[in-house]
Amino acid sequence: MMTSKGQQVIQQWYREKNWEQFPFQAEMMDAYLNGYSGLLNAPTGSGKTFALFLPFLAGFINQHPDTFKTQQNNGLLMLWITPLRALTNDIRKAMQEACNEMGLPWRIMTRTGDTSAAEKSALKKKLPEVLLTTPESLHLMLAQKEYPKLFSQLQVVVIDEWHELLGTKRGVQVELGLSKLKVLGSKSEVLNQKSKDLELKSHDFPLKIWGISATIGNLEQAAEVLLGNDFPKEQIRMVRANLEKKLDIRSIIPQNIENYSWAGHIGLKLLPEVMEIVAKSKTTLIFTNTRSQSEIWYHAILDNYPEYAGIMAMHHGSLDNELRNWVEAALHAEALKLVVCTSSLDLGVDFRPVDTVVQVGSPKGVARFMQRAGRSGHHPGATSLAYFVPTHSLELLEGAALKEAIKAKIFESRDPLLLAMDVLIQYMVTLAVSDGFKAEELFSEIKTTYAFADLSRSEFGQLLDFITTGGKTLAQYDEFLKVEVENGLYKVNSRRVAMRHRLSIGTITSELSIRVKWLSGGSLGTIEESFVSKLKPGNTFWFAGRSLEFVRVKEMTAYVKKSNSTKGIIPSWNGGRMPLSSQLAAVFRLKLDEVAHGLERDVEVKALKPLFDLQQKLSHLPQSHEFLIESFKSKEGHHLLFYPFEGRLVHEGMASLLAYRISKIKPASFSIAMNDYGFELLTDEDIPIEEALEDSAFFSLDNLIDDIQHSLNANEMARRKFRDIAHIGGLVFTGYPGQQIKNKHLQASTSLLFEVFSEYEPDNLLIRQAYNEALAFQLEEFRLRAALQRIQSQNIILKVIERPTPFAFPIMVDSLGREKLTTETLEERIAKMARSYGAEGVAEPAERKSRKPGITRKKGF
DNA sequence: GACCTGCTGCGGCTTG
């Protein structure tokens, strides 16, 4: 094959930079120059930015072989979208340097929330050749008058980190944005072709769209979603980097498994073992699952290993940005030996000096663990070293499952969202705010997206009604009449409506948080309203790794001063709940089956032998064709324990469902507890479980939805989902920047809307969406069905047990957490419970306790 | 207002 001028220039420039090291770069160049769009599957640190930027440059040079060094442009040629504004600056710098070195007089700019007003207006006057932006900022651009001009010269759009967006509403927003760019881009290219007679190989979609994605279970589908339904299949390419990353994963095995905790999730008992690893490593990242767990670990290390003061830092999403940036910079500068963090450090730039990663507690998913493990040994060819620290005994088996899954290359999928009406409504108003839209034109554009392929014309009609007249229900309220129709053009004429809309573009909603500031000025981060409300002036709490005395709260800010107290509570945040992924759960069940068959391949399984022996002795070790139920009586009542090993969300739904089905035989009220492995039904009456099991309907899928509606407070679940939907759909205004409307008011108004719709317009599309979201995300209906189906084909083993088994114990401890009034720490209560049940293997508060800091894992006082 | 272990991410500054 002839190499074009563009390729020669690029190759010459890139030669010193190890082009040959990444063979996929050549394949990418070829795909791009031949007019393909598609998906590049490459991890961070593989030069993926250049893999797309350089082919684009080569294409440009080919179009202007003699003049490219002087070629002036009057428009945007490349749009680069990333989910993280922090990434835009690094990418911009790298691109700009490349252009400078090649003598190309180009400007690379960013447009995000961080871009100054001056820069934004500069952008409006003269567009750069390359613009780096976020999905939200793209939509803000679409909300500008005469936005088509911005994109009239556009040749390629790159969606970086597509796997992070796919499966979220931000992803849907990207799909909608692309459907518009495709129309604008193709129109302009047709013009270009006529006037300049460009020689392009493909003409249907001259706008190229490329996604960059880490490995996920559904890459092919990821490409489909990105490109939409109308993209010609023969114009799509998948380029795979196929860079094998060597991983060395080791579980930390508690020395005496019989004395290791059966329950719990903090894992501090293994602190000495972890610190041994830290001491031997150059730089270590300790990943925890929650922000409060990071604080707890940081505090414990500082207390027990004071020599780490100054060379250790913490990083999580509620810490001030300035602090987080400092930590990242210090990591790069190799000034830190240890960072305790959450997944906030998952993203972003690579941390080259890191040689060891420690994961405390189950990462709950294969991909998440891979990504974290990959943070260490960040040189091409280097081996990543990651340790898994179980926080309770049985979790050790997850370590074995993780290794197995990684070996078998099992990855989670990101399921694309369908028919997110709230996002669509927002988009429609966005277009109405700028130049307005024609209904039929827009409908056909929207139909090209994967998300709205099944949108019916009548549903679209309902949405049009909704934004123009408020729909059936809200027609009397001016507040909701946003869009007007003039000669078939849907337009927003009110400046107030337009501005409010621009203020609320985006799909990320969050709880109102309180900023924590020193009395002397300077911000530490944010904590939640509910936590602050429990503080009294003079109280001490630990946050951002410091002991703080609460002074007062004023205008959404909690003022604090330094405290010398070594005791204090640690805030916890209400974040998302991460159930065990279905892929990891499946491998976990596989491991359990091996255990039941007496196979002891893994060190983890060997170590757990005493625990499994006890489980077998007291009850049973289920094989893969068996389903274990344990029945047990105590002074609290009748306990039933079920073990689907399917993740806690599914267990929550299944527990309510089965409780409901039992109560049809004999009325009773149940209390429910669950973890990722199973769930417990507890009632003070005798449960007719044998009778229930004889009925084939017990685990049946028949009447599933109906029974779920009866057994769970489906209304309440939908009402909670509706709150976010109402925000995104623009039904409530969250206030001007800096003066947010009180949470309680918003709560009340979305709740009211939910009721009004439910009563007068039950077929309302947003209400329907709320129920669907509750079913899909809260209940994981799909997994619930699959689990029920599996159980139906299994042999049910019902064991009457004398006392809690190793499987049962952690679940029953879980239910302790819900008791409202107690002054004991969880640890004390576990110990007490262990004594009262005579359960073996439950550690008394260990001898290490004297070294431990005065942390109680309690919320509030 | 509910959650009780629970991550991450963006954007906007003027009307009525």
Features:
26 strands, DNA-binding, helicase, DNA damage, Rossmann fold, alpha/beta, single chain, helicase activity, 861 residues, disordered C terminus
How would you describe this structure to a colleague?
The chain is an alpha/beta fold and 861 residues long. Among the domains are: 236 residues, P-loop containing nucleotide triphosphate hydrolases (Rossmann fold, 3-Layer(aba) Sandwich), CATH 3.40.50; 162 residues, Rossmann fold; 50 residues, no CATH class. The chain has 32 helices and 26 strands. The strands form five sheets. The chain has a seven-stranded parallel beta sheet, sandwiched between helices. The chain has a six-stranded parallel beta sheet with strand order 8-13-12-9-11-10, with helices on both faces. The termini are far apart. The relative contact order is 0.08. The C terminus is likely disordered. The protein binds one DNA strand of 16 nucleotides through α6, α12, α20 and α28.
| Number of DSSP strand runs | 26
Q: State the name of the first-level CATH class of the domain at 5-240.
A: Alpha Beta
> In the CATH hierarchy, what is the architecture of the domain at 5-240 at level 2?
3-Layer(aba) Sandwich
Helix content: 40-55%
Structural class: alpha/beta
CATH superfamily of the domain at 5-240: P-loop containing nucleotide triphosphate hydrolases
Overall pLDDT confidence? 87
So how many helices? 32
CATH topology of the domain at 5-240: Rossmann fold
Shape call: globular
State the end-to-end CA separation.
73 Å
Query: Quaternary state, please?
Result: single chain
What would you report as the Rg, rounded to the nearest angstrom? 29 Å
* Beta-strand percentage range: 15-25%
Biggest beta sheet attributes: 7 strands, parallel
**Order of strands across the biggest sheet?**
3-4-2-5-6-1-7
Poorly predicted parts: 188-204, 817-824, 839-861
